[in-house]
TrEMBL record:
<feature type="signal peptide">
    <location>
        <begin position="1"/>
        <end position="18"/>
    </location>
</feature>
<dbReference type="Pfam" id="PF04972">
    <property type="entry name" value="BON"/>
</dbReference>
<dbReference type="InterPro" id="IPR007055">
    <property type="entry name" value="BON_dom"/>
</dbReference>
<keyword id="KW-0732">Signal</keyword>
<feature type="domain" description="BON">
    <location>
        <begin position="44"/>
        <end position="111"/>
    </location>
</feature>
<dbReference type="InterPro" id="IPR051686">
    <property type="entry name" value="Lipoprotein_DolP"/>
</dbReference>
<protein>
    <submittedName>
        <fullName>BON domain-containing protein</fullName>
    </submittedName>
</protein>
Length: 190
């Protein structure tokens, strides 16, 4: 448990977000203030993500590019692996962790994992996508509630949103240069 808390603290410091103490647990202030999840669920999701990443490092060959994100116990795996066995190992590593409700495995099997140029493009797409959400004019919509993960020009969207919010987010992002596909992994609110 000490290792997990240490990892979380390091991750929070590296993200540049101020951390707050909520109910004896460290949670980023931005997440708690704007998120539709409870502070406990935000923390649980961060712990699940760190735990899954750690387990995948043990189970999958190092020549892979796997992005892990968690929202309300749903784990998203996106990126590239060298073979189907590693794809299955990564999913199994995520599925057995406490608190995981579902695994969405979007890993692609490739002969060669993408290089730095592709990764830079993905980071650029992610920043443009986040910025584009600021233009959505729907009452009570908060762009910080949408998690965006980009791998090989594919944009994966997570969060607790209304159907109108989801449609508006997809419409904004799908037209951005470099976006090949948009995948909704949303949970819908009322």
């Amino acid at each position: 448990m000490k290792k997990i808390l240490l990892l979380l603290m390091c991750g929070l410091l590296l993200q540049g977000c101020a951390a707050v103490l909520v109910g004896g647990a460290i949670v980023t202030g931005v997440n708690v203030a704007h998120d539709r999840r409870s502070s406990g669920q935000v923390l649980d999701d961060k712990i699940i993500t760190a735990s899954v990443k750690n387990e995948i490092r043990k189970q999958v060959e190092h020549d892979s590019r796997i992005k892990v994100d968690t929202y309300n116990g749903v784990v998203l795996l996106a990126g590239e692996v060298k073979n189907n066995q590693d794809r299955i190992r990564a999913e199994d590593a995520a599925a057995v962790k406490d608190g995981v409700m579902k695994v969405v495995n979007q890993l692609k099997t490739v002969e060669e994992v993408s290089k730095m140029g592709r990764r830079t493009k993905d980071k650029y797409i992610a920043s443009k996508a986040k910025g584009s959400l600021l233009k959505i004019d729907i009452p009570d919509f908060d762009p910080t509630r949408v998690k965006i993960t980009v791998a090989n020009g594919e944009v994966f969207l997570m969060g607790l949103v209304t159907r109108d919010e989801a449609d508006a987010v997809v419409e904004r992002i799908r037209h951005l240069r470099g976006v090949h596909r948009v995948v909704k992994v949303f949970e819908y609110k009322g």
